[in-house]
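Please complete every field before forwarding. Incomplete forms are returned to the sender.

SECTION A: IDENTIFIERS
Entry label: holo-455
Bound molecule: zinc ion
Molecule representation: SMILES string

SECTION B: INPUTS
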Amino acid sequence: MQLNVDRNPGINDLWFLPLGGCGEIGMNLNLIGHNSEWLMVDCGINITSSPLSGAQPLIEIPFTDFIDKQKSVLQGILITHAHEDHFGALSSLWSRWRCPVFGTSFTLSVIRRKALMRGLTPPDLMLETKFGERTQHGSFSVIWHPMTHSTPENCALEITTSAGTIFHSSDWKMDKYPQIGKSFRPKRFASIGKRGVDAFICDSTNAQDPGFSASEGDIVPGIRQILANERGRVIVGCFSSNIARINTIAKIAVKSGRYVGLLGRSLSIMVECAKERGYLDSSINWVDSEHIGYLPKNEVLIFATGSQGELGAALSKLAMDSHRSVSLDAGDTVIFSSSIIPGNEFVVSRLFHKLEGLGATVVHPGNFDETLHVSGHPCEHDLRQMYQLIQPKIVIPVHGEYSHLNANADIALSCGIPNALRGMNGDLFCIRPKPTIVKGFTKVGRLPLPEFRKK
Ligand SMILES: [Zn+2]
Ligand SMILES: [Zn+2]
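SECTION C: PREDICTED COMPLEX
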């Protein structure tokens, strides 16, 4: 039965309304409603690759008509971390709302640089937060908690109102050896639980995978093993935002007598932001991309963009032998320290074959025994442990397709959490005073982002 709710929450209401990221992986845009006010958490894009042509991926943004019409009561935009599925649409959409944007130093730095790279204007009003800090946004009080993930300065949000408290996990994993930043601290989350959480909005990406998510530290032995035996150039494809991965591999490269180069703009931007924050080891011998080709092959390790087979990215140019700085030969090795995003399998396997056609050896998680990549998201046992720590009254699974959300909800209930609300983008999750879902509360959808397609 549909509840007859107003478009705006009252003083006793605490609402959650996802416009993106609930029923899909990507394009996260969450709204929290209370006391006739709204708070936005994240503003991301969705990237859809073309599986057959390898054409430029289609970039999509959420349909935001609901919050566009409520912009006068939008109290703030909180960006949890520097992944495109959480901030990528912000610079394109911000002028609709002109509302203060909050995030950590690294996250805001990435937002600024990426906007400029794409010829966009970053938001005028960006305010830096720090771990442990409390910020106030109208009726919403927010504590920014450090949370281990696969990019630096990721924040989980404890959002308190007079009607109740939401714990928004952001993307997360329990990493004991994250390589950058502090390890996962269970005590911090037990304290949040003790203060009382009405609803836990939780990452569902790996909810169908049993066990615990592996640590970022687990990739060290495999990379060491490869570098100990290689005499040619080593190229590494990995996600540009994984600064811990870049730092770990670059440090091993230095110990193997190799300079470290970068091919690809998005890698250069992420590394610049990381250097600014002091996240990269001072022993790393960086070499300009223009000079990489002139160095002896056994003295070079190169990070390259395009591990998903994107046309025009550095790995694709290397595979086509059309990169202006480097040509690969027999004896060179390309390591894929990355997973294949579902849908990209064909394009990535074609990239493997093209690189092998040049005589290079391709090493990837599918053909190498040691760990070359770990996920930044929680598996079943991470979720179970977190639910024991937070002990919320309700779990709201997000950041997943329907099967992921469902698996996460089942885990929560089996842990003794009294309620799990299962819904999708556009559904209104009423947390207080009475937990329920209003299906199809507002229109949602995806729109192509033209300015990205030109780049
Ligand atoms: Zn995400
Ligand atoms: Zn993320």
